[in-house]
């Protein structure tokens, strides 16, 4: 059997790391002074494990809402005698100055700080502790790290506790840190300073660095460019994304003759005085002969640099430089490994001399763009994901696994970026629909569910919520959502809390809620009931009543209540406590002709009537009269009449002594029940789904209420004769045959009841002899019992 997309199992290292992080106190740590987490004294962890622990911890905090961060986690790695860190990747507001200070004694080789907005100039001071070992440093998006807080001093700030207090309190103002320099960082080779504050002088900051081979100055305002020439013989990679290009800067870049990667791209919607030309591209190709990667995305071409259309149309697409449709690239010695042409007209030509091209011409270019720009350029990634959305919606996505993995990665990476969340969730809806489903593994689909729920948690905005809810509808419910069952229910109930929610989201969310409680065990139903499920549904019903509207939300809400009360007495009690019966009567009065609504309401009340302790609350003249009148209903075939009779059957089962009303009389109601049952066609196909016959079977071996016994026997005969493949095995399994034999033995059983009991037993016997003769029952529509 072929493996499905995304079916590769996690490594043992990855599984063990996550387990340890979720169970720190049971594996590596103990609770120390002031509840600080402390590493056990008998543990030594090498760098391979420590790096994995820290980096996975950051990922879990960022992507898993159930994972609880530990305030003193980084303190576990304070002592290099027991822990060794070498390569650390930290991101977002998770990281504070004190966390970096905790690991200051480690000999870090690589340190990546991405969008760590909470770091201040205190962390610059900490960086100097790593200057003798650090080879790679990323400070992308750390907007406050060159600022220091200035405010009124604390009464005492001698110990670490006061330093933490000072870190957390708001400063009256911030000033720029001008004293920091990279003096002494002699081993530093790779440096990312993207987004460096405009007031920081990049030239002065970088001057001490003699051995830089890779430099990223994206979105940096360069006051001059000559300083770059100090690395003319060493620099292999230079990124100047969204840097204002000038003749001086380009001349300097062309002196960096050992460059292998050059990125002078820009966001196409950002204004600039500079325009790319054929002459500039030619100079880059001629002077920078070692280039294997070039990105000129977003640039408008000043002049035409492509071959005539009739020449380009000749032959199949080729990567050979000599056949390049872009004339300056014909001088390349070999095809580039990467060429960024996103948001340019050049991406649409036929012959491009590069193995990997970003652009918008086709699926491959779009996926390359998402891959290349997700981490540091969400503004481009979200546009590329939007183009992938169009491909999946209108055309066909041929690289499904790659597409899904890239969108999932983008949503994880940019959890707080609304534009990425909107486009990513929309793309996931089309990438997980029926057309692609058979090719996707369980692991991959679970990853999709996780990022969708992350988006629902983070954003209450209408578009994100709608996209996420619609995407969840592409999954088998509840089976595929069961691993996040509690979380998804909480999120859906939160969506439904506002009194005036967007109508489309409300409809989808109620549908999902209904589906989630349709085919799950009682434990799940009870847990969801405690979350406020019953009250939320009744609030929706109340609002619809006020609006005098009976729509899908109204019907799904009653259907969901029918499902969640099935064999769960606590939820039935909640229904009664929250004025559920009053709403039932109001709905009957307001919508007398809504058959689906009546069926769902009576199905729910059948569940309530099954709970002996709650039946006295149904035994009032008003309710008994309503149920009796509904016996004659022809709504939805026999369903409303059948369910009304079921409610009354359970009430009658409690005996005449509990019937404390004069009107209606008990015997008159029983006569109406007999008449109703006689009127039903026993071969009726049913719009119902039983998971268990237990509530019906308890009505069989008794003489208190023969009509209740007859209703139960009729129900069994109807189900096993119309759907023998589904219900004969269930009846046999639950001991129904023995109970039917007792019906035959009872003198109080009516003749027609005994006759029907025999037919049920015969049907089950015939089924055992020839089980292949029948169908397996109806398709289960949401809104049915069970």
UniProtKB/TrEMBL annotation:
Q: What is this protein called?
A: Protein zer-1 homolog
Family statement: Belongs to the zyg-11 family.
* Signal peptide residues on this chain, from the entry's feature table: none
- Write down the SUPFAM superfamilies for this protein, in alphabetical order: ARM repeat, RNI-like
Boundaries of each Protein zer-1 homolog-like C-terminal domain copy? 412-766
Pfam families (UniProt xref): LRR_Zer-1, ZER1-like_2nd
Domain Zer-1-like leucine-rich repeats region, by residue range, is 204-344
Q: Which gene encodes it?
A: ZER1
UniProt entry tagged with the keyword Transferase: no
Q: Record's GO cellular component, any one?
A: Cul2-RING ubiquitin ligase complex
Q: What are the TM regions of this chain, as residue ranges? A: none
Establish whether keyword Repeat is in the entry: yes
- Keyword list, A-Z: Leucine-rich repeat, Repeat, Ubl conjugation pathway
Q: Which domain of life is it from?
A: Eukaryota
Region feature Disordered, mapped onto this chain: 767-786
**Organism the protein comes from:** Iconisemion striatum
InterPro entries reported for this sequence: ARM-like, ARM-type_fold, Armadillo, LRR_dom_sf, LRR_Zer-1, ZER1-like_C, Zyg-11_UBL_adapter
């Amino acid at each position: 059997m072929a493996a499905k997309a995304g079916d590769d199992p996690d490594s043992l290292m990855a599984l063990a790391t996550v387990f340890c992080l979720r169970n720190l106190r049971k594996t590596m740590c103990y609770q120390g002074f002031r509840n600080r987490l402390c590493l056990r004294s008998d543990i030594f962890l090498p760098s391979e494990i420590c790096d994995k622990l820290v980096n996975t911890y950051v990922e879990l905090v960022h992507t898993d809402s159930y994972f609880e961060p530990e305030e003193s986690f980084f303190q576990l790695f304070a002592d290099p005698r027991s822990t060794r860190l070498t390569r650390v990747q930290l991101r977002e507001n998770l990281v504070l100055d004190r966390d970096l200070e905790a690991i200051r004694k480690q000999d870090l080789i690589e340190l990546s700080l991405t969008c760590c907005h909470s770091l201040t100039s205190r962390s610059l001071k900490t960086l100097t502790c790593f200057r003798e070992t650090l080879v790679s440093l990323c400070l992308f998006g750390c907007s406050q790290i060159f600022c220091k807080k200035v405010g009124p001093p604390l009464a005492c700030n001698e110990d670490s506790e006061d330093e933490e207090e000072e870190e957390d309190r708001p400063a009256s103002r911030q000033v720029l840190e001008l004293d920091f320099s990279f003096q002494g960082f002699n081993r530093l080779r790779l440096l990312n300073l993207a987004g460096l504050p405009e007031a920081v002088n990049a030239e002065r900051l970088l001057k001490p660095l003699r051995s830089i081979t890779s430099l990223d100055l994206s979105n940096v305002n360069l006051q001059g460019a000559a300083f770059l020439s100090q690395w003319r013989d060493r620099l292999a990679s230079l990124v100047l994304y969204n840097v204002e290009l000038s003749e001086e800067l380009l001349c300097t870049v062309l002196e960096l003759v050992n460059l292998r990667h050059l990125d002078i791209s820009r966001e196409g919607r950002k204004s600039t005085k500079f325009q790319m030309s054929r002459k500039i591209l030619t100079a880059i190709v001629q002077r920078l002969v070692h280039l294997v990667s070039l990105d000129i995305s977003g640039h408008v071409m000043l002049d035409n640099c492509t071959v005539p259309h009739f020449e380009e149309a000749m032959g199949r697409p080729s990567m050979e430089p000599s056949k390049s449709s872009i004339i300056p690239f014909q001088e390349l010695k070999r095809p580039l490994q990467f060429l960024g042409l996103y948001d340019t007209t050049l991406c649409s030509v036929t012959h491009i001399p590069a193995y990997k091209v970003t652009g918008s011409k086709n699926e491959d270019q779009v996926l390359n763009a998402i891959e290349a720009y997700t981490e540091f350029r969400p503004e481009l990634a979200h546009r590329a994901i939007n183009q992938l959305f169009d491909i999946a919606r209108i055309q066909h996505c041929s690289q499904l696994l790659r597409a899904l993995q890239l969108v999932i990665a983008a949503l994880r990476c940019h959890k707080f970026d609304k534009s990425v969340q909107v486009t990513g969730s929309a793309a996931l809806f089309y990438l997980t629909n029926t057309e692609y489903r058979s090719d996707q593994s369980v692991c991959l689909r679970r990853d999709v569910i996780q990022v969708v729920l992350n988006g629902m948690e983070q954003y209450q905005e209408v578009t994100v919520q709608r996209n996420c809810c619609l995407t969840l509808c592409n999954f088998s419910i509840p089976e595929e959502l069961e691993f996040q069952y509690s979380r998804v229910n909480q999120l859906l109930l939160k969506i439904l809390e506002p009194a005036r929610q967007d109508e489309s989201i409300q409809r989808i969310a109620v549908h999902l809620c209904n589906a989630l409680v349709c085919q799950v065990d009682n434990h799940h139903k009870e847990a969801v009931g405690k979350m406020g499920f019953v009250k939320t549904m009744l609030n929706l019903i109340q609002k619809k009543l006020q609006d005098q509207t009976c729509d899908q939300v109204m019907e799904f809400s009653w259907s969901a209540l029918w499902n969640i009360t099935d064999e769960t007495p606590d939820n039935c009690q909640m229904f009664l406590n929250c004025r559920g019966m009053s709403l039932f009567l109001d709905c009957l009065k307001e919508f007398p002709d809504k058959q689906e609504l009546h069926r769902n309401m009576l199905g729910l009340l059948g569940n309530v009537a099954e709970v002996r302790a709650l039946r006295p609350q149904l035994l009032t003249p008003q309710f008994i009269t309503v149920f009796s009148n509904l016996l004659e209903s022809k709504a939805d075939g026999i369903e409303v009449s059948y369910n009304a009779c079921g409610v009354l059957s359970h009430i009658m089962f409690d005996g005449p002594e509990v019937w404390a009303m004069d009107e209606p009389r008990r015997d008159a109601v029983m006569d109406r029940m007999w008449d109703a049952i006689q009127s039903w066609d026993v071969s009726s196909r049913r719009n119902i789904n039983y998971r268990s016959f237990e509530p019906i079977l308890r009505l069989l071996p008794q003489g208190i209420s023969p009509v209740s016994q007859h209703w139960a026997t009729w129900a069994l005969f109807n189900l096993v004769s119309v759907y023998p493949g589904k219900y004969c095995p269930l009846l046999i399994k639950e001991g129904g045959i023995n109970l039917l034999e007792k019906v035959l033995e009872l003198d109080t059983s009516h003749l027609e009841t005994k006759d029907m009991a025999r037919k049920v037993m015969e049907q089950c016997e015939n089924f055992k002899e020839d089980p292949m003769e029948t169908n397996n029952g109806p398709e289960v529509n949401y809104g049915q019992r069970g």
